[in-house]
Design goal:
single chain; alpha+beta; 3-stranded antiparallel β-sheet; 3 helices; 9 strands; globular
């Protein structure tokens, strides 16, 4: 009885529902990842921490991963396959201890799907190229999108902008 009340309460205030953003409309089932490798191949190419996050859908502790406090201009690549997934132009300080972005670099750079692990309803974010787990997207971000793409820093590699190759500017 109490649990039904809590679910009703959480649903009414929006805590138990996944974001109603476009991010929640994609599906891994309909997506074919161009880069596919065996677990053994991934283990040979990734550090143990990268493998735990990217392939086993793990997470790093807040304020411990790479890039949560990075303020340089540049682009963020998937640490598994090298695809550009986010840019510094869309990075913001969320106060959560993970790198946070208002949107991916391109819509096709990521794939999302419902995640009900740990008794929560969230939207998982994966690399659109290799399917590596990057983090989650929430609907409590700033303008212009209202989205907070909360990403594991250890799932990323950063490439700073240079005068010859400035970071992309998102309109």
């Amino acid at each position: 009885m109490l649990s039904a009340f809590l679910v009703s309460l959480l649903t009414s205030v929006g805590c138990a529902n996944p974001p109603s953003t476009s991010a929640a409309t994609q599906s891994e089932e309909a997506h074919v990842f161009p880069v596919t490798k065996t677990p053994e191949q991934w283990r040979a190419e990734l550090t143990p921490e990268e493998y735990r996050i990217l392939r086993d859908k793990g997470t790093e502790r807040a304020f411990t991963g790479k890039y949560w406090d990075n303020h340089e201009q540049g682009v963020y690549h998937c640490a598994a396959c090298g695809q550009i997934v986010f840019t510094s132009a869309d990075k913001f300080e969320s106060g959560t201890g993970w790198p946070s972005y208002t949107r991916p670099a391109e819509a096709r750079a990521v794939v999302t799907e419902s995640d009900t692990s740990y008794g929560m309803r969230r939207v998982e974010v994966m690399c659109g190229n290799c399917g590596g787990h990057l983090g989650h997207v929430f609907d409590d971000g700033p303008r212009p999108t209202g989205e907070r793409w909360c990403i594991n820093g250890n799932a990323l590699e950063f490439a700073p902008a240079t005068p010859a190759t400035p970071a992309p500017v998102t309109p």
